[in-house]
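Bug report (template v2)

What were you trying to do?
Predict the complex of my protein with 2-phosphoglycolic acid.

What happened?
Run completed; filing so the output is reviewed.

Input:
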Amino acid sequence: MEVIIMKTAEKAEKLAARIIADALIEKPNLTLGLATGATMENLYHKLADMNKKGKLDFSLYKTFNLDEYVGLPAKDRNSYRYYMNYHLFDRINIDKRNTHLENGMAEDLDFECAEYERLMEEAGGVDLQLLGIGLSGHIGFNEPTSSFSSRTRVVNLTPVTMAQNGPYFDPKKGEKMPNRALTMGVGTVLDAKKLLMLVTGERKANIIAAALEGPMTSMISGSAIQLHPDCTVIVDEAAGAKLKLKEYYRSAFKNDPKWAKYQKI
Ligand code: PGA
């Protein structure tokens, strides 16, 4: 695992966008694993800008998102399908038939999850999986106690996650946050060839330090990334504030030739 500390959230997002763009350019039929959440919005806008400027062509890429709420249709502004269309897919030249999210409206949710795993396998697996981390320590919606070998499935959301995402739902408009979701499992995430985690903001400082430098535990599903052989974590100074090995991470980023081209961000 490599940890990169950038001065600001803007720089962290820019570095993540550059790493994704470089991976896309290197493998024109890459399968990209995507994440939702406030952290990813600017990153997606940056990728869309690159597409607009002709630097990135999305026409051949396939995407698979981590998760989706149960019971929200695509047109619901709180669904992750809506989020992805709004923040990325409607802004780039991707064929929407190549973009995948679990269908939280499926009649048979277990079948939907199995089918999602099958589609990922058929696509040759995820090459690069983007991840955030929630205040509950989740990756995707893998809440505490999720097995490290879990696969795509229906999960119940914890009070911490309900409190984190609840404010996006407006009761005055009749909106209610679902307390269940479909999510790739921890094991599914770990099957990706490469992981890229982006974490910004002071409120994530404790959980990201526990996930990266604490013991691996199913109580913090984000700690499972310690098992992955090719994992890069980008944090801003605020999110990285509680990391113990900060100076080591800084010198590794500065001195490793593979990061040389990203030094000027
Ligand atoms: P956030 O969500 O980007 O909105 O903080 C991340 C997550 O819960 O995984």
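What did the reviewer find?
The first helix runs from residue 9 to 26. The chain is about 30% helix and 15% strand.
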